[in-house]
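Lab notebook, design round three. We kept the backbone fixed and only want residue identities now. Task for the bench partner: fill in a sequence for the structure below.
Input structure tokens:
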């Protein structure tokens, strides 16, 4: 877990480690992917809050269409294949 992560993300990653017994490599992958999503959401929704300050109230603003926009972004802007997405 990283100190620059939002607390809500670190809590989730700790859950994956302590309750679900995910590997460190898997947790690191989740961390990278979710941070990418958070930065995308910050820009896409034009949020005036830093990613490190994201909380459940910020995440409750995310709608299905925002997630679809992120998947489109991953497909076209990041050139990710369907397996990566």
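Proposed sequence:
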């Amino acid at each position: 877990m990283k100190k620059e992560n939002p607390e809500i993300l670190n809590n989730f990653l700790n859950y994956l480690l302590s309750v679900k017994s995910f590997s460190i490599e898997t947790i690191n992958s989740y961390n990278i992917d979710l941070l990418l999503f958070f930065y995308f959401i910050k820009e896409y929704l034009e949020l005036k809050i830093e990613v490190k300050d994201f909380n459940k109230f910020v995440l409750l603003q995310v709608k299905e269409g925002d997630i679809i926009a992120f998947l489109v972004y991953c497909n076209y802007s990041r050139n990710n294949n369907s397996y990566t997405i």
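Keep this in mind before ordering anything: Residues 24-44 form the longest helix (21 residues).
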